[in-house]
């Protein structure tokens, strides 16, 4: 994708007084009530520091999001992937289900974590997803009815960038206008594919700008709190026990590196790990929390034998392809024409409106329990077509996959990349669900309604033998980047799992995990809304314990 020609200065006020670049600038001696590593951590830190009695330090390995244009203009998000500056730029292990291909696995390395670079989809999952979590954990507080208030605490409904009338597109009685993270309802303005959608998509965009946990929970008015410190360029390596008088496994120190120096921050009350589905199990294992059969051979002594750490992960496989269309106003006109691109960027720069104010104006179509199909009015999304023209791209995602994978460490060095194995398309159900999604999309485009609009598919998948179609699917599928489960919740008395339903690590006092890794299975949705809800509830659990 094209990048802005000019650097736009001072887009966001930058008086984040309590965001520190260097340990040397931090007041005090690195002793806090709570020390938090990672992204959803900004939500938790914000809620804890509402109480002036609590002091909180957030450690962020990456950089600030302030003035990072690609993390502000919704359409530019993918520029952050693969950069090594704002991205960990991970790669999966060879995936047997993908004909042994590896796949890039972007994870954000910037304040706000993945909410600073994701596709901005805001979908909560179904009531059944949450009721199943309640069932699995034997804790009714995770049920849909009980988690809904936390979604509403997060959601701040805002008018869409194009100010279109949203009447009939959403039901105000189940949405909130006073939460933290701005959302608006995306709709396509550029091409007439209105009948494609039977659902409207919510996006985390406000005023034509990305809304992330950093722009919302670390907005200036919160960042100024004296008890809320954020340290950048601080990469957590492991957790340590500074007070060895306890007798049982216990952690009160967070070791991190900044530059070439190593430091330890001390938590008087709790350590909260929010490093995400890849980072969290890695840090646990480097701290000696994991399966002794795996840690032993690596030369790490086991402090707490918890075999589920890093196991049982699930991610959503995604198959993307395009149809050529007889339309002139797709995003291709903007993405491939420098003049149009500069016009669009100038429009965004002046008014935060126009084609760049949303992420390719993507819209989901049907959302049955197993499959999500979304449409993007452009061909440049996700694939190199090598030809010009106008396209509609279709992403087919298996939102309730059965395959399971793992995240494992590969050495004693906390800074070596972990082995990320989402196990994509290992279970036959997942590949048959993708075949079904392809069939339905073909039926959709062959409807007489599209006769004068749709030219044809880029990849003809009609009348192909199942074995060949499977091979194509295995060649083209990529990870949906919605990994969960690597530090799963389970019932208190379960023989598996990493955290109890209160998100405290089993068998340890004072260590909580609050991020996507605690979800036992992926919700039939994009994960960001779920992570916000988990973080809001997690913060409440901590407050209940300490007040
Ligand atoms: C660090 O500071 C806290 C108060 O800010 C104090 O209670 C504690 O004793 C100090 N610890 C050390 C090792 O200096
Ligand atoms: C990111 O990883 C990919 C492999 O997945 C590699 O080709 C690329 O060079 C990496 N980017 C940087 C900036 O290192
Ligand atoms: C994938 O790799 C495995 C192990 O090396 C091998 O047995 C299998 O045949 C490979 N599959 C393909 C499709 O190449
Ligand atoms: C979980 O669901 C199963 C199957 O529907 C049911 O038998 C069981 O009682 C449920 N458990 C809880 C704790 O709700
Ligand atoms: C150290 O552990 C002992 C025993 O559990 C506890 O009483 C004490 O408060 C702990 N001290 C600190 C500074 O955490
Ligand atoms: C994986 O999760 C299932 C429940 O979904 C559980 O029965 C199993 O023990 C888990 N395995 C591990 C290694 O945690
Ligand atoms: C697209 O542009 C071409 C050339 O300018 C024009 O002939 C055609 O009518 C346009 N098509 C639509 C659907 O607007
Ligand atoms: C690029 O866009 C400009 C402005 O809309 C238009 O005049 C020009 O013809 C376009 N160029 C191409 C190659 O389509
Ligand atoms: C964006 O706006 C600023 C002034 O607000 C201006 O200096 C800059 O040139 C504009 N950039 C673009 C690409 O229009
Ligand atoms: C894992 O470690 C082995 C042995 O050091 C090394 O050869 C391999 O490249 C590592 N794998 C990854 C994905 O880093
Ligand atoms: C899948 O990819 C392999 C390796 O590139 C290739 O040999 C094979 O022909 C592809 N299969 C199909 C059906 O395109
Ligand atoms: C820890 C917690 O929030 N527990 C609550 C779970 O739900 C029951 C009733 O639904 C409450 O009484 C608990 O306080």
Automatic annotation (TrEMBL):
A Pfam family hit: GMC_oxred_N
PROSITE patterns listed in its UniProt record: GMC_OXRED_2
Cofactor: FAD
Stretches assigned to the Glucose-methanol-choline oxidoreductase N-terminal domain: 276-290
InterPro entries registered for this protein in UniProt: FAD/NAD-bd_sf, GMC_OxRdtase, GMC_OxRdtase_N, GMC_OxRtase_C
GO molecular function per UniProt: flavin adenine dinucleotide binding; oxidoreductase activity, acting on CH-OH group of donors
Keyword Flavoprotein among record annotations: yes
Family as reported in the entry's similarity comment: Belongs to the GMC oxidoreductase family.
Protein's UniProt name: GMC oxidoreductase
